[in-house]
Amino acid sequence: MKDVGIVSYGAHIPRLRIKSSDIAHAWGKDPETITSGLGIIEKSVPSPDQDVATISVEAARAALARCNIDPQDIGAVYVGSESHPYAVKPTGTIVGEAIGATPILKVADYEFACKAGTAAIQTCMALVKSDMVKYGLAIGADTSQAAPGDALEYAASAGGAAFIIGKEKVIAFINETCSFTTDTPDFWRREGRKYPSHGGRFTGAPAYFRHIMSNAQNLMQLTNSKPEDYNYAVFHQPNGKFPVRVAKMLGFTSDQIKQGLLCPIIGNTYSGSSMLGLASVLDVAQPGNRIFVTSYGSGAGSDAFDITVTDLINKLPRNNAPLVSQLIEMKQYIDYSSYTKYRDLLYED
Amino acid sequence: MMRDVAIIGVGVTKFGELWDKSFRNLIAEAGSKALFDSGISGKELDALYVGSMSTGRFIGQEHIGALVADWSGFAHMHIPAIRVESACASGGLAVRQGYLSVASGMNDVIVVGGVEKMTDVVGDEANDTLATGLDQEWETFFGATFPGIYAMIATRHMYDFGTTREQLAKVAVKNHANGALNPFAQFKRAIPLEKILSSPMTAYPLGMLDCSPVSDGAAAIVLCAADKAKNYTDKPVKIIGSGQASDTLSLHGRRDICTFDSTVYAGKNAYKQAKLQPKDIDVAEVHDCFTIAEILAIEDLGFVNKGEGGKAIDEKITTLDGKIPVNTSGGLKAKGHPVGATGVAQIAEIVMQLRGETGERQVKDAKVGLAHNVGAAGASCVVHILEAM
Question: What is the pTM of this model?
């Protein structure tokens, strides 16, 4: 598949943060047990005027700011999220209009729990490869919901990343991608419901671990590669523990996953999770580096990517937009009472 | 005049979070393993007994006797199929009911199973369902939970007898060490003392690792009249004592919350029938749903004096190489506690010990074993004493 890849990328993380310990205090839990148990110190929180549309636009503009392409050459926009602001009316049209890519444009919104964004990358790859579009824009972003008092409340955060996929000016080729999908109901949100439900411990072994392990092993078989062939590895990060454990199970080292492991300091950005991890890796990647990316979406499925960075990475003005590390540092803490107001928790489901 | 009864086959499934196995898969697997082990054919069965605590709440299914007969392939034989319930002692009581039916002469060959599928419910539902074994009106409605009730017992035991958190934790250390040697155990790993002591507090003084887990699993045994046992197996094991007792459902009605009188009476009756004393027992499986429960059990069964359970743990008299090895399977703590299966699985472990089939956790020269199964917080109890024939 050595002809399609990433042309540019951009990220966005809302500035507000809440500490896990503050949420734990509000619910009478032991902060130390929660923080070390989940491996999450703090998470990002969207302010009242931020949603998936604004995060997607910020990320898309960051991607365009780094590369010199005409937005009119972008022929497709796919936005993956499980918190699209509208149930009916696409986020993608807002993004397309905001970046000047309309009207000759293919658009759809995607939903596949935390992996809708990586599914959008695969769609864009196919459109580019078949010459149906010159460039495709794939976005994963979320402002995820969590019921007050639910364990998810410590993790569900906000953020997103955008990737421009094309054949020209490629900074990182996507050598191979594969997916692993089953009907596994580990996490869901019914139509019209405000907060998601989950199967507790069922979200672990039969869901996250089975799908990521199987898909990652399939990718290594397809590409005849081993963990040590990669400089970086990024896994979906629902908490600080799962990605570390799955990396170890697959044979990746903590050095390989460090750069892409953001959950402990920004929480789980759902559709943005593995994509922000990849953006963080691209912030520092050098020509020839090889990157292993595996997303996971409840319900359940996993997309995996084998990526090789090209010489053009150093021609890309990466500082034309905020690096992930800079987005993480731009922060302002709020307490739990502000959090309940901003996240509209004061009203019953 | 009752006749002697022997166990001629046992079967257990792996215990644990078995996401890909349903209630019916589990009991059918345990039952067929037990029948295969005994060498009988299904056609020879006169009846089927199955213990399970709360299928209605755990899987939304009742009418378990007929269901298990059906899924075991016995529907066309139209044999009696009986479901037995006594909270966490459902399995032990199913064994006793089956035993009585063969001892009475009514049945010649029967299979007894125990099963629970607990992980199909999420959140607090498993805990709430277990708490239905307590007194709903006097305990649960006021917020008492299973760990909460046992925590009160533990706190009183510490106050009355100086029992320590370390002694409680050492019960878990021992049982995890044993569980590490049991291929069917949910937790096949040893856990050091410090880790047990530092586990998140569930209900003082019981931390998370003082509590048995939520588990799926099943176990089954085949019983027949003892005089016919040698027709099927070279190593039959005889049931030489069976005792059952009850007590107030709520803890506050007891004369002493540090003693389970149901254990004392069930034990006395079993010892009397077996014409044995506590010192004659070579190996025991006791109901350690919480670490404090094992301390109560070894006192109430007479292995040590009341109040000396904690000291006995320090002195290691219940470890694999101790004077009276307790919970060689890992107990409920490490082997797992699919409630309805537990009482039957305990019998299966003792049978395997008496046959000398437990590998690295084998107790040397074990001839007589005891199984002790408690319902909820001691409102019911079943004790069996087994002997190699």
Answer: 0.87
